[in-house]
From TrEMBL:
Principal location listed in the UniProt entry: cytoplasm
GO cellular component terms given for this protein: cytosol
Lineage per the UniProt record: Bacteria, Pseudomonadati, Pseudomonadota, Alphaproteobacteria, Rhodospirillales
Organism: Denitrobaculum tricleocarpae
Identification of the protein by name: Putative pre-16S rRNA nuclease
Xref: InterPro entries: RNaseH-like_sf, YqgF, YqgF/RNaseH-like_dom, YqgF/RNaseH-like_dom_sf
Gene label: ruvX
Domain of life: Bacteria
Length: 169
């Protein structure tokens, strides 16, 4: 059950638990957490990547501490919609979390095209951050951007389902 279609994610997350957004990169994994109502994403930090078992253990600790019921992983789809080696790497990370680290939370993917560049533009233009400071926050901000996009899509999905007419009885 852990790998689920994005549209099925909310039905698999137990009530009262939150979603953890991940922006997996080659050097770090950006992290963001949702509120309990799945409305707002907040950046919480990064994991500096090392050995898989160490990274998975740190991630599992965060999931327990933050009461995480599901994960949304940013999927770096190419601009033309195809999946390249980076997508394969993210999918493999998710599979390893399930197979090797025993994660039982449902995991869904979210197309993260342009998330890092959107965050970089904001940090340079609006926040006027230095290059050093941007390097410290861009991964967790990208995770929040990814998670917020997913939360907004899930909210739209829920509204659409609620407004569908009931079948005649």
């Amino acid at each position: 059950m852990p790998l689920v279609a994005f549209t099925d994610l909310l039905s698999k997350v137990p009530k009262g638990l939150r979603l953890l957004g991940l922006d997996p990169g080659t050097k770090t994994i950006g992290l963001a957490i949702s509120d309990g109502g799945f409305m707002v994403a907040s950046p919480i930090g990064t994991i500096k990547r090392s050995k898989f078992t160490k990274d998975a253990k740190e991630l599992a600790g965060i999931c327990k501490e933050r009461e995480v019921g599901g994960l949304i992983m940013g999927l770096p789809v190419n601009m033309d919609g195809t999946e390249g080696p980076r997508c394969q790497s993210v999918r493999q990370l998710a599979q390893n979390l399930i197979d090797k680290a025993g994660f039982t939370q449902p995991i869904a993917f979210w197309d993260e095209r342009l998330s890092t560049s959107a965050v970089e533009r904001f940090l340079v233009g609006e926040a006027d951050m230095t290059r050093k400071r941007r390097a410290d926050v861009v991964d967790k901000m990208a995770a929040a951007y990814i998670l917020q996009g997913a939360l907004d899509a899930l909210a739209n999905q829920s509204r659409a389902q609620e407004s569908e007419p009931s079948p005649p009885t």
